[in-house]
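Model: You mentioned two targets. I'll fold them one after the other.
Researcher: Yes, keep them separate.
Model: Target one:
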Amino acid sequence: MNTSNRELLDKIIELDGKDLTTLNHEENKILEAFKKREHEFGLRVEVVTEAPVEDLKQGTSSYQIEREEHSYPSRILIVKE
């Protein structure tokens, strides 16, 4: 693995578990750069809401469910494929 790939991997691992809504501009750039190349690393980025499933099940429309999801943190997960 070359140095630039290793640096990108190290930076994306630092974002694992962070709330997507709290990322600064630089962290967002790292996330987007990695998402374009995640297949090269055998990893993938997932963003998971912490909204309780019971609350989401009560939503009667996709708009209402999305609105409920946005009221809770969305965690970044780095998953090995």
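Model: Target two:
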Amino acid sequence: MIQRKSLLIQIKALPFWQGHPAPTARRTLQGRSQIMDRTMSMTRLFSAAPLSSLEDEVREALDDAIDSLPLARLHRDPLDVEPMIDALLPRPARLLRDQTRFSVEEAPVKTRDLLSRPRTRDGVRVVLRTPFEGDGRFLDLTAAPGLDSLPEGRVDGQTLVLSLATLAQDPARIAAEVGRLLDEVEILLTHQAHTVEGWRGSLTQAATSAILDRRERVEAAEATALALEAAGFRRTSD
């Protein structure tokens, strides 16, 4: 069996880790407590709410924007709604994977024995901190229906924090597991980006229809005002 200290040294020497802060082993009880506290703060990503809830927010904001359009813009032909939609569509999150930083620690890993009884064994935990661009809400919203296995992590500002606990003692295998974890997150984010781009067509139709409807209401109100003036009534100044 590979000694834990030797394992951490081997992980640090892998090409995947080069250029990053050196991983460290924490053997004290205090260190183990900190590891467990950090793990407890992790939650399942892509599961807090459906992605459609964000589309609903965009549609509500679009209605508000159209209701507040100046009259001159309202009567502009042809209607140009794309800039409005571009401004309202949230920017999907994208990992800046090459800026990932990490730490490697000894940590208790929860597992089960042959009889499926829970137990805790000594293992290794890799904590990743990966910056991202775009709207961090995407990391909490569903990426695709019916997914049972989702990564765990948390969003810290514009940084995604991921944790990987493993009993593996082969450094190359641990590095491969880390790579697969980041791949999984990127696949889910890409799926979300395609979904959001797919909203554009229906949003364009909805915006065009709403502008035309408001134009008709404004024109009808103006026609009513002219008729009242013709009947001898005066408009108020407000």
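Researcher: Noted. Anything on target two?
Model: Strands lie at 43-44, 94-95, 101-112, 118-133, 152-156, 159-166.
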